[in-house]
Amino acid sequence: MSAAQIVGGVGVAVGLALSSVVVDRLSGSTVISGFAGTATVLGAALLALPTAKASGSGGRRAGLSLAYGAALTGCAISVLAITLGSWPLLLAGLVLVGGGSAGSLAARYAATDLSPRDRSARHLSLVVWAATIGSVAGPNLAKPADQIGMRLGMVQTAGPFAFAALAFALALAVVLFLLRPDPLTLARSQNGSQPAGPGRNRTIRTAWQVLRTTPTARRALVMIAVSHTAMVSVMSMTPVKLHHDGSNLDVIGLVISLHIAGMYVLSPVVGWLADKAGKVPVLLLGTVLLLASAALAGTAGHRVWQVTAALVLLGLGWSCGLVAGSALVTESVAFDRRPAVQGLSDLLMNVCGATGTVVAGAIVGVLGYPTLGLVVGVMVGAAGLWLALTRARSTPAA
After folding, report:
1. Are residues 241 and 118 in the same domain?
2. pLDDT tens digits, residue range 191-211?
3. Are 93 and 231 found together in one domain?
4. Are 249 and 240 in contact (CB under 8 A)?
5. What range(s) does the Major facilitator superfamily (MFS) profile domain occupy (predicted)?
6. How far apart, in whole angstroms, are the C-alpha atoms of residue 109 and residue 125?
7. What is the pTM of this model?
8. Does 213 lie in the same domain as 92?
9. What gap in Å lies between CA 158 and CA 379, rounded to an integer?
């Protein structure tokens, strides 16, 4: 699982670093460039339930294979789109590339299938951390991959997506041949549970039924969605901002690499803290970090160092939201219903993220990057206040 996260992280990170810049170049529109991040996040959302359904019926291997296979196909389409100079086709390819993110998100839950309750966050965070190497290295490999691609006869910026296709192919091979025994199948045999029955609607209906009766899971799901929306919105438009400010691919790659390091490097610490201090306090810590990031990004101007600091804090805040929130969702739901709720969680967080990138592109294109920082700050602050108030009201009853 860790090996799949490493190589899959390379593919995801290369796409994150360049997709908005390539769409901006092909379309000539900053607003349309925001749809690059939207397409990828939307793809992750669209593939969340099929991945969860495949996992529920066939185990984690089946779900992850579906996700990484879709990402591989999307990279091939993206290379074709760049060759033809078609930004609509590129956006279509990026939707399938979102399967890489869907796979990475689903992989974190595989770590909790066999973990004890008091270590769920730590085990989950270790799988999240495994993506660090590939995710940090990915953006910095964009320029060498581009140069190699052009030497092989590819058009400019097609090489990185071809390199991402190779990374996803390796991740798919790891899942198919090395993920044995399947953790979900083994956990089911230990708990006496049966695979979920067929039907997409049943997956959705089961998840909603659980959320209606489980306030803790609802709170965790909302905070995951808010953290992800804030992260994707700011991150997706930062390469465009830096590009317009005159930064080259090396600078953009470094900034995104440091951002991704913030997302993943300290995730084991976040997991340990969530198990020791509690999931909700770590979720609240995440909102504070995201607020600080929004403030720095909104006031950065042309200072690359301040944008970089904002992106690092953005990654740390996201890590708190994802690790603590995902562990809280898992431990608050019965074992036989976890795949359905986990799939719905990934669906909603990515739908919110996709919506956020659309709005972010429009905000930056019309009102500017500083306004995006303000809007994200208001959203995160409201969510953090809601979490604190609902937690306080539920404490006496508990």
Report:
1. no
2. 666 555 544 446 677 787 888
3. no
4. no
5. 1-395
6. 10
7. 0.75
8. no
9. 36
